[in-house]
Amino acid sequence: MALSDHEQQLLDQLEQQLREDPSFTRSISEDQPVGPGDGLSATRVVIGVVGVVIGLAIVLGAIWSGIWPLGVLGFAVMVGGGFWALSSGRAPKTDAPSSRPTGSPGPSTAQNRKPSGFMDRMEDRWDKRRGGQ
């Protein structure tokens, strides 16, 4: 399906804006997994699914036997297995460089905190635009 002239013009404008802001492009590419082992691990997913199945079996056994504390334990095992399956197993990066130069002006709260994620950077950019900086 071909783009209309207006849609093609908007796409060209977006591409031009992205080329003019290399720091934005760099910051987005830093947040994405880049190689094998950076995303979900098959081993962790399998172990997590096994944990969820075992937890479900414990919950069903608790229902069958009428021992409710055992059901709570089974639920905890299920949640733990799901968390294990979906986590990457690595500590988050805390030494990422700030997207703002050290001498740039900005709100005092933004200078005191280090942007830690995509939404923080977007909020900082919004604050700069709204403040006229």
Automatic annotation (TrEMBL):
This is DUF3040 domain-containing protein. It holds the Pfam family DUF3040. Residues 120-133 have a biased composition (Basic and acidic residues). The chain crosses the membrane at residues 45-64, 70-87. Residues 97-109 have a biased composition (Low complexity). Keywords: Membrane, Transmembrane, Transmembrane helix. Residues 21-40, 88-133 are annotated as: Disordered.
